[in-house]
Amino acid sequence: VQLVESGGDTVQAGDSLRLSCTGSGRTFGSYTMGWFRQAPGKEREFVSVISYNEARTDYADSVKGRFTVSRDNAKNSVYLEMKNLQVEDTAVYFCVADLWAMGVNPAEYDYWGQGTQVTVSS
């Protein structure tokens, strides 16, 4: 599975942004999809995950109530809607995929996109 993210931008605190990730392959709908992020000087951290059939989603505590993950298997795409962005949300955001993982450990996920930069200024 090859993943390509888009939608990263520089925004003001309080703004909204929508990230997209498009995957290759006819089996996209079989994969759990998720988002991680990495800020400068920090480790990669879990943001959100959605199961292959959208039955289950999970979020990091830091983004609950502000971020929403969704997917459209017909378009081989997963999205991250981000509202009320804060300076601490500044990071490179990575799309991930895996047949089995649903956890917060980045090592669980086999496939990664190249990342898209989100910068939030105060």
What can you tell me about this protein's structure?
With 122 residues, the chain is mainly β. The chain has no helices and eleven strands. It has strands at residues 3-6, 10-12, 17-23, 32-38, 45-50, 57-59, 67-72, 77-82, 91-98, 111-112, 116-121. Strands 2, 4, 5, 6, 9, 10 and 11 form a seven-stranded mixed beta sheet that branches. It has a four-stranded antiparallel beta sheet with strand order 1-3-8-7, with no helix packed on it. The relative contact order is 0.32.
Brief sketch in words of this structure:
The chain has strands spanning 3-6, 10-12, 17-23, 32-38, 45-50, 57-59, 67-72, 77-82, 91-98, 111-112, 116-121. The protein is mainly beta.
Cα distance spanning the termini: 37 Å
Tally of extended strands? 11
| Structure annotation, total helices | 0
Uncertain segments: none
Strand and helix order:
EEEEEEEEEEE
What is the residue-averaged pLDDT? 96
Strand content: over 45%
Rg for CA atoms: 13 Å
Q: What is the overall silhouette? A: globular
Counting helices, strands and paired strands, the structural category is mainly beta
**Could you describe the largest sheet, including whether it forms a barrel?**
7 strands, mixed
Give the helix level as a range of percent: under 10%
